[in-house]
Design goal:
mainly alpha, Glutaredoxin, two-stranded antiparallel ribbon, 6 helices, 55% helix, elongated, Thioredoxin-like_sf
Length: 146
């Protein structure tokens, strides 16, 4: 979820009611703010918010059903999750591909923080920050090319 997302805000009361049932259903129920953990957006291929995953025995299944407390409870208690095909190991969150994607998302957030620091704290104009990043990219290309 993301705190600015209207759909996430609408889901929050139902999710909290469902979370109260976690101990009875013998499941851990959590939520992750993708603005605080940007690497997870790449690792789990988050393309829309909110995105819900069911994880059991190392298998990840994306939940796409109705979003009410009753539907969530039935999904777990009736083991409806068994009817959903797990995410392939190639696209699983612990695969090399998704770990690499996560690293790229984290790198993009680091670059964004650097840009913000350069423009707001150091006082460099936006175009100057772009020039710095362009030169850094060219330099890295030269170093890697050699």
């Amino acid at each position: 979820y993301a705190p600015w997302c209207p759909a996430c805000q609408n889901l929050q009361p139902e999710w909290e009611k469902f979370a109260e049932w976690g101990e009875d259903l013998e499941v851990n129920i959590a939520k992750v703010d993708v603005t605080e953990q940007p690497g997870l957006s790449g690792r789990f291929i988050i393309t829309a918010l909110p995105t819900i995953y069911h994880c059991k025995d190392g298998e990840f299944r994306r939940y796409q059903g109705a979003r009410t407390k009753t539907d969530f409870i039935n999904f777990i208690s009736d083991q409806e999750w068994k009817s959903i095909e797990p995410v392939s190991s190639w696209f699983g969150p612990s695969s090399f591909l998704m770990s690499s994607m996560s690293a790229l998302f984290q790198l993009s957030m680091w670059i964004r923080h650097c840009h913000t620091y350069l423009t707001e704290n150091v006082g460099i104009p936006v175009w100057g920050s772009y020039v710095i990043f362009a030169l850094a990219t060219l330099f890295m290309g030269l170093v890697l090319g050699l």
